[in-house]
Amino acid sequence: MNWDDTAAMLLYLAKRSEGNKEIDLSTLSIAQEVGLSQQSVSRKLKGCEDEGLIARTVHGQGITITLTQKAVTLLREYQMILSKYFKMQQVISLKGIIASGLGEGKYYMSLEGYKQQFQERLGYIPFEGTLNLTVQPAQLEAFVAALPSVRIEGFTTSQRTFGGLIAYPIIISLGTKKVSGHLIMPERTVHTKAVAEIICPIHVRKVWKITNGAVVTLAHG
Length: 221
Hints:
Helix 2 packs across helix 3 (about 40-50).
């Protein structure tokens, strides 16, 4: 049995165990879930048993599989490998180029349905407008992946329905200037992932005296 087969089977069994020492399964149910034949599943299970990674008990309803201490140790090794990998993949800062928006940020930030939630959930009422930054989509996704998030619920007025959004705490900086704020991702947006929308308590453009083309840095807040 090669390493990939061992890893795949142990990870599958660990997932199905839900923390229990013993797992009641059948080769048919495993085969259906992982897309293999029963013969292939039986062969892989026997390989794990031969390597001392599992113990099997066959009964009328199927089989009971127990992960051994050797299997637990190997799973922990996999965990360390994956943790190290994802830690290296994390983007802890993100550079963005200030760009003009569509002018909608001021309108949305002025709505009481959002402002009340910003005050309650973010701890401040943002400047009525968003700071739009041109970013690399892949870097943006990696950046927010490691951030906690706060949900701002959508709401309905007599005129229309407004969608919810997710807010991620960040620190915006330019040289020695810094301010805390949030990167927001509306559920309904005309922007692509190449644009990051930022809210914060101040009018960054005016207070910092910057214009389109300036490069600011976002860090985990």
